[in-house]
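Final report, closing paragraph on structural work. Over the funding period we assembled a curated collection of sequence-structure pairs, and we close with a single example.
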Amino acid sequence: MFRRKVMSLDEVLKKAMRLQGLEGPLHEKRLLDAWAKVMPEAIVRYTGDKFIKNQTLWIKIKNPALRQDLSMQKSQIVPLLNKYAGANVIFDIHFY
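Its predicted structure, as stored:
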């Protein structure tokens, strides 16, 4: 008899994405999209450009007072975003 390793479609897709090097960019995209879903609308309105570089999320905040408040809360924001993305994508946030 033949032995076959039966894998679910979910496992096959994850393995294929990992082999193609697409798993990391997918997690980064999920994390960038999570900002608008995790943060309140009042904060999202003052948000500008967002990007990830060297496992650090860089976010442009248009209001200086809000930028300072978010800087003090980054230890609480990082786990929320990582949880939403489903992986440890970032370790720090910089607001500019």
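The helical segments are 9-20, 23-38, 41-44, 64-72, 74-85. The longest helix spans residues 23-38. We thank the funder for supporting this effort.
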